[in-house]
Amino acid sequence: MADWQTARYQSPYGKIELRLRGGRLAAVRLCGPDDEEGRVRAQPARGGAAEPFVEALRDYFRSGEMRLPEERLDLSAATDFQRGVYRELRKVPFGCLVTYAELAARVGRPRAGRAVGQAVGRNPLPVFIPCHRVVAAGRRPGGFGAGPSWKLNLLAHEGWTAKEGRLVKQSKEQRKPKTCVYAGSFDPPTKGHMYMIEKGAELFGRLIVAVGVNPNKSYTFDLATRLELLRECARGLANVEVDSFEGQFLAHYAQSKGASHILRGIRSDEDYRFEHAMRNINEDLEPGITTVFLIPPREICEVSSSFVKGLVGFEGWQEVVKPYVPEPVYRKLLEARIRWPGQSAGAEGGTD
């Protein structure tokens, strides 16, 4: 098993684990919310063997396209009949459905609906081989190996919704993804920020991570560096955009981006008081925008940008800081050579 490679990709609906063998995609696992392995932070390859498959997932969740030649898929464990079923499945266009009976006819075995269903159920490469597009008669959703939530979410991504047990095509307005803005100074991004970004990407169809620029505030890292770090840290999140704004209220910026929600994190009582007031002000400015609050897990709840910077420069700071920041940020901190006394440690109430 030494030739197996694993990468994880954070989709809008949960983590997707990819397993490669000999440079070809051999297995795909759609992780559930209670899946312990699925809770591991997404680890898309950078320039490695998994990168083409990660890029194919990005394309699918952004535009619906899945450009990946069949020879990149390892179906050596499948029977000839199963490979025929999978080949026909890959021909079903984005946003279209096919019944088991129709698929059986397409593979030249019109009476083999049950065998087709078994082949679909054993599909080792969901999404890449779009078995979620196979439905029961009468447009009933039917089963799915990763569970009904994954199937309904993937179908919703392709414009379908379940109503009274049957799939109906969504209107253009219904298909429009909800946009959320998560703003901060991100000087630098921390694992607390990444928790918020990953959760925001799961909750919303489009998440804009916006770096707010305050001309009256001094920053350790310039705007271009912070944007670069955020893009690198969020590289595996297909529905995340990184942007910046200056001279605007957050609510007005969110409205200009077509956002329906603002995402904020609460780490302490102090944060709560600040964010409670800001929520009311934002509602006064833009009544159509809803503020959503998340509380990070206990192990990173106290982590802020100022907390991290306050640790840098002391003897042995490298090992102390490393657990609190994403790898790209850690490398940048090593390069920056920030030295104590620098900025003091402490919570940065609601302004990270």
Brief synopsis:
The protein is an alpha/beta fold and 352 residues long. The chain has 13 helices and 12 strands.
Tell me what you see in this structure.
Residues 36-47 and 340-351 have low confidence and may be disordered. 35% of the residues lie in helices and 19% in strands. It has 352 residues and is of the alpha/beta class. Strand 11, helix 10 and strand 12 (290-294) form a beta-alpha-beta unit. It has helices at 51-63, 80-89, 100-106, 113-121, 148-157, 172-175, 191-203, 223-233, 250-256, 269-285, 305-311, 317-321, 327-336; strands at 4-11, 14-21, 24-30, 98-99, 134-135, 160-163, 166-169, 179-184, 206-213, 240-246, 261-265, 290-294. Helix 3 crosses helix 4 (113-121). It has a five-stranded parallel beta sheet, sandwiched between helices. The protein has two domains: 4-169, Orthogonal Bundle (Arc Repressor Mutant, subunit A); 179-336, HUPs (Rossmann fold), CATH 3.40.50.620. The protein has 13 helices and twelve strands.
